[in-house]
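Operator note (shift B, R.M.): manual run for Signal recognition particle receptor FtsY requested after the automated queue skipped it. Running by hand, logging everything below so the morning shift can see what happened. Input copied straight from the record, untouched. If output looks odd, do not overwrite the archive copy; leave it for review.
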Amino acid sequence: MSFFKRIFSSEKKDPSLSEQEKQTLDKGLEKSKTSFFSKLTKAVAGKSTVDDEVLDNLEEILVSSDVGVNTTLKIIERIEKRVSTDKYLGTDELNKILREEIAGLLSENNTDDNANFAISPSKKPYVIMVVGVNGVGKTTTIGKLANQFKKAGYKVVLGAADTFRAAAIDQLQIWADRVGVPIVRQQMGSDPASVAFDTLQSAVSQDADVVIIDTAGRLHNKVNLMNELSKVKRVMQKVVEDAPHDVMLVLDGSTGQNAFEQAKQFTAATEVTSLAVTKLDGTAKGGVVIGISDQFKIPVKYIGVGEGIDDLQVFNKVEFVDSFFK
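Run finished. Output pasted below as returned.
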């Protein structure tokens, strides 16, 4: 049994990936892996032991790979402890040690071991409110989520509550048609809370299992954003008492440190309960998943590792680290 399987052996609910999903994940992280390990190879060139210079270089590599300063310092501190325990730690072991420490960090911080495309039978309809700035892949993520839930046998309804952009409503309509699920929409400029209310009423009348509500991706004024999202929540609760059951923040992994800033802004404006990190296949900044998971203590539920309709995956921390260091 590998180190990772032993670490997470008690987490029996941690979903495993199919062989095809593993291949998609490997391909999606290829740019991040290539960039990271080419830098690591240069950092240890000519070195036989892990000394201060190697650790300084490793710190720079992790930061430049968008792991984030605070998370990087945690990883370096863990490795320093192991170096002090074994004075003759070789650079050939550095890859294995890094792998183990990052796996341990994700295990501590990403606590949602039930993340999958299944919902609790006691929550019906299960309401997901999706937030995030424009351009991060929010609407695409909603479409792919709807597809996965439908494939799992659930009845899904979409709500187009991002009423400030006509393109957002039309794009969600395209996804609804593509997946084959109903959508509730109004005219551009309509009250988002009204759309959310109508969506939940429609979902209840249709005996739907899952409702996914799109919201406006504006972040120019945190107070306005907070007020708007709070109003949407209050209105939804008139129909479904404990809605929303999940407030999912979508972040663009290719933006690196900007994704951290967006996470700060949104977590300050509303209670975020899960994260989806998109566009990891087109970037060398895959390390951002590690940093975001560590810094915000909010579970990363899903990652986008390709453009295909099935390329939104459950974030499996075992498989992610395994693929990154493969």
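Quick read of the result: Residues 156 and 210 are 5 Å apart (CA to CA). The first helix runs from residue 3 to 7.
Leaving this for review. - R.M.
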